[in-house]
Amino acid sequence: MLLVASLLLKGLAIPLLARIAWLDFTTQKISNQNVLLLLCLGLGSLQLLSVQSGSWWDMGLSALAGLLLFVALFPFWALRKVGAGDVKLMAVVPFLIGGSGLLVFSVLLLLFALATALIVKNPFMLPAGAFRLYVQHLDRKGVVPFGVPIAVAAICTIAFQVYVTLMSHAGLAT
After folding, report:
1. Which residues contact 67 (CB under 8 A, 6 or more apart)?
2. Which of 4, 35, 104, 108 gives the lowest tally of CB atoms within 10 Å of its CB?
3. Distance CA 81, CA 141 (A)
4. Which is nearest to 109 in space by CA: 139, 72, 150?
5. CA–CA distances in Å: residue 169 to residues 6, 72, 89, 165
6. Is 78 helix (H, G, I), strand (E, B) or coil?
7. CA distances, 64 to each of 107, 147, 155, 159, 171 (Å)
8. pLDDT digit string (tens) for the chain, length 174 residues
């Protein structure tokens, strides 16, 4: 029952992450309210898993990863290379995906960040239309909405975790 509740909390984070990605893409802003809500969903999910497993290792690993990401990205914010919302979102994501999902998230984030940078720097790769013009506008401003690949990588990681959990439990049921 605790596992189902944990998966439900992670599932509730998916539309919020999609909203964050869209708002970051259109406004280059990530609100503190959305980041705090993600933190609450992540902490709730991790706490349920910790109670079920009897181990707080995953929560400790998530807290350490979140702290390290915040400390590592803070100088980039100070140098105006990334936005404050991006730094806060990156610090919260380990709580949302848990320590066990950090490797999958890291690989996906690398792929999506490279794809985002490539698209922003080469908007001619996109089909013609308003979307292409908007990306060209972002390139002229020198802005890369880094919250988009962070959110998409987190969504994919959560979907992968849910899939693995459901498949492992379906295997136990048979």
Report:
1. 91
2. 4
3. 13
4. 150
5. 14, 37, 31, 6
6. helix
7. 19, 21, 21, 23, 33
8. 888 899 899 999 999 999 999 999 888 899 999 999 999 999 999 999 999 888 889 899 999 999 999 999 999 999 988 889 999 999 999 999 998 899 999 999 999 999 888 877 776 766 666 566 666 666 666 667 899 999 999 999 999 999 998 898 777 655
- Residues 22 and 147: their CA atoms lie apart, in Å, by 9
**Lookup: tokens for 163:** 């899939």
Alpha carbon of 25 to those of 13, 108, 114, 131: distances in Å? 18, 18, 16, 11
